[in-house]
Specification:
Strand order of the largest sheet: 8-9-10-11-12-13
Largest sheet: 6 strands, mixed
Helix content: 25-40%
Strand content: 15-25%
Length: 583
């Protein structure tokens, strides 16, 4: 940087440099016989020259994602879809051009802490039938998607949502995505602390801070209350896990703290790693902002494949990242100090109930229950949404939670009203019961609604589950995750059985199949079984795998335990003979 412009912003530097050149003053101060004029400093984005930026970063450099509103109005007036890098920018506002796979836009809602009111659910039902295709899907980040939205309807939809305190901003492209919390927060019988306030405060701070929009790449943050339900915090860039610190000799006050895990991105075969770092629950908002700002300033803006927090940590190292984070915290003048503590000084986490998101479960409030509603791969009609809103108001407190398992919860239902509430849910074509297969199946939108997908995941998942339900009765759940591409929105690497869409041999729809993944206390990446195989063959393959498991397992042994007891060669013996030999 030239000494004459040091201390000025980039825009001021460029203005002054050009003014000096235009006025001719550079000649008066230049050395005699110097034949060169003063050059303007090179344009940079957080230290990266503009000419080195990837195309998406160039688009954000030219037009900040928050500055496309007038264009959005013009597109709506002309009923014109955004294309190319324009539609990339528009994703920051939560609207995605998914044509030709699905007509119109897809809208992804921001639901901080995975919580909505009954009134908000009715507003979204109205939007689904008025502006969209007449249905909604629960997402794998505890939110909702609406589809088939015409450009002419976008502004009206945004205004309708705004009246209900709803927004889609920050749910796509290079944003800090929907902030997830243990869905049973506030009523979980085992939770240590309700962390919804922190998630909601952080979400609002992010949306109100311009520098935290259009960050180097997507960013996921999760708050785990350490209850019976999981929110998959170890799959996030930042995972806060509530824990109890016991008496210790390291100067850390006993009580409820949050352990901090960093760098989760299971699509790239990595979990968030416990850093040994601790903070108080009330400090998580400042810690998150500090870490986000370090990512903004130092994340890779030249290579999209290396632009996640995991790769910044690998490049610079954890000590460097924590030092930069503390510098940011110090600049906030809040007095927050990061604390290191060996996890052995923390009490073990409560076991997770893998089916606690479906059915009727008691709350920590005596005499009250929550009802986990089983949807068909997350899909609801507007009428079903209104029924859930009515049930939540009539029998509960108007509170609706969404889970990463793609289903809603209705809490605060008195014992005496559980039967009536369940009957109304069932009468609307939904269920409060699910098989060991249906309860654990997760599928992204797939090729039906996503340009990147190589397989029709939702349709294939439904056919697979229906077939398996007819063939087997299980005494413990088997989670099956189907994702359409290697972005792994459905996180296939953490499923008991994971399927990732890919081209089949000879072309057409196919899958890679992996086994033995898990999260939280079962954390581990699934291992390759076979693939790519044609989508038409997955039912036979998975049926054979489960049949071999039931034949060979020890008494009461879970599928995950059984699969993990096998080495790679033994794993192949679960396949049909012809595939096992080929593998």
């Amino acid at each position: 940087m030239h000494s004459m412009t040091k201390g000025f912003t980039r825009e001021q530097q460029l203005f002054l440099a050009q003014a000096i050149v235009d006025s001719g003053l550079h000649r008066a101060f230049a050395p005699k016989n110097a034949g060169k004029v003063v050059e303007a400093p090179p344009e940079e984005v957080y230290g990266t020259p503009v000419e080195d930026l990837c195309k998406e970063e160039v688009a954000k450099y030219k037009t900040h994602p928050l500055d496309i509103w007038r264009q959005l109005e013009e597109w709506g007036h002309a009923d014109q879809m955004a294309e190319g890098l324009d539609q990339f920018l528009l994703r920051h506002l939560g609207f995605f051009n998914v044509e030709p796979n699905s007509k119109g836009y897809m809208m992804r809602l921001r639901a901080p802490a995975c919580q909505l009111t009954a009134a908000q659910f009715r507003t979204l039902a109205f939007c689904a039938e008025t502006y969209a295709g007449g249905y909604a899907h629960v997402t794998t980040r505890g939110s909702l998607q609406l589809r088939e939205i015409r450009p002419a309807s976008v502004i009206d939809m945004i205004e309708t949502m705004q009246e209900a305190s709803l927004t889609a901003q920050g749910t796509g492209a290079d944003s800090a995505r929907n902030l997830t919390v243990t869905p049973s927060a506030g009523f979980d019988v085992d939770e240590l602390i309700d962390m919804r306030p922190q998630a909601k405060r952080l979400s609002l701070r992010i949306l109100r801070t311009r520098e935290l929009q259009g960050i180097p790449r997507k960013f996921n943050i999760s708050f785990d209350n350490a209850g019976r339900l999981s929110c998959l915090s170890d799959t996030n860039d930042i995972g806060f896990l509530a824990t109890i610190v016991n008496e210790n000799n390291e100067g850390v006050e006993p009580g409820i703290w949050c352990r901090i895990a960093l760098g989760g991105i299971t699509g790239h075969k990595d979990f968030a790693r416990d850093t040994g770092l601790m903070c108080r629950p009330e400090e998580t908002v400042d810690v998150s902002e500090a870490m986000l700002r370090v990512f903004v300033e130092h994340g890779d803006r030249t290579n999209r494949k290396k632009a996640r927090l995991k790769y910044l940590l690998e490049k610079e190292g954890l000590p460097w990242f924590l030092e930069r984070t503390q510098e940011k915290l110090d600049s906030f003048n809040t007095g927050v100090k990061l604390v290191q503590l060996d996890p052995t000084h923390c009490e073990p986490r409560t076991p997770i109930d893998r089916q606690a998101h479906i059915g009727v479960h008691p709350q920590k409030q005596l005499g009250l229950n929550y009802i986990g509603v089983a949807l068909e791969l997350g899909r609801m009609s507007p009428e079903q949404m209104r029924v859930l809103a009515d049930v939540a108001e009539k029998y509960g407190e108007g509170d609706i939670r969404l889970t990463v398992w793609q289903n809603p919860l209705i809490p605060f239902v008195p014992d005496a009203d559980v039967g009536a509430a369940c009957a109304e849910i069932e009468a609307a074509g939904m269920s409060v019961n699910a098989s060991a297969f249906a309860a654990g199946v997760v599928a992204c939108t797939g090729k039906w609604g996503c340009k990147l997908a190589a397989a029709y995941t939702k349709q294939d998942a439904l056919a697979l589950v229906r077939h398996l339900e007819q063939k087997f009765e299980l005494d413990s759940p088997i989670n099956i995750h189907l994702t359409g591409c290697n972005n792994s929105c459905a996180q296939h690497y953490i499923g008991d059985i994971g399927l990732m869409g890919s081209a089949a041999p000879g072309g057409g729809e196919g899958y890679q199949i992996v086994l033995g993944g898990g999260s939280d206390l079962d954390q581990g990446l699934a291992r390759d079984l076979v693939g790519p195989v044609a989508a038409a063959d997955i039912t036979e393959i998975i049926e054979h795998v489960i049949a071999r498991y039931l034949e060979r397992r020890a008494d009461g042994q879970t599928f995950l335990s059984f699969v993990r007891s096998l080495d790679d060669d033994e794993l192949k013996t679960l396949l049909p003979a012809d595939l096992g030999q080929a593998a």
